[in-house]
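Final report, Chapter 2: Outcomes

The project's central promise was a pipeline that accepts a single protein chain and returns its three-dimensional structure in a standardized token representation, suitable for archiving and comparison. That pipeline is now operational. To close this chapter, we reproduce one record exactly as it appears in the project archive, with the input sequence first and the structure output second.
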Amino acid sequence: MKLTRILFYTFILFTLSNCKSDWDLSELYIERIENTSKVIYKYDAWGGRDSHIFGYTILDSTEIFDINNVVPLNFYLFEDIPSKNLILTIDSDNSDYTKTANEIHKPLKIVINQLNNIKIETKIFQYKGFANRTGGLGRYEFEKFKETHDSVFFYNLDDVESMKSEHLERIKFKKTNIAINKDSLNNITKITIEDLKLSKSGEILSNITYYLKPKGKININEFSEVGIFKELNAKK
């Protein structure tokens, strides 16, 4: 990692260890790692003086998530569904943003770490090349969905927020960077999807964000917890 990224994660560890009672856990999601007792937590918390921490960590399902003792994982997005042996992830390095004129869209390097006996392999992209192929926004309401082991299909979608309305019969997403929000009755309120696409050679092609809402009531438990983050009741 470059110095700026090292300093960033050092700051996270420092603030976690020195602000033990001040964190307000604003978002907490869980995803299970198939065929293991391990789970991945996705968290977001605010502290005093507008300090902010967010990211992922891995725990055993028997352990209780504690924002004050999080071991953060150093990546931004998942490349594939996490497995019991390997988690493929994506991150970017902005240390040379002002110095580099040319965009690079393939990984600069691969960093390998390990947590809870799981290998974590992270492709590090140039920030400029990654950012300039990240963009676009889709907002739709959907009628129903179908989930397979590695994908989710949504049907009868309508864009109700744009000036020019759009209808889609179907849209498919890979189960990697999907987070589902719910209300107090476990009905889905929003699904956020980062639709990351890489070529076979590892080049970033696009990363479009989608916000989906059901047209009727759909219980969050109709979705699995494999390849999908489901919101938990956040606790302070």
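Archive annotation: The first strand starts at residue 24 and ends at 32.
This record, like all others produced under the grant, will remain available to the consortium after the project formally closes.
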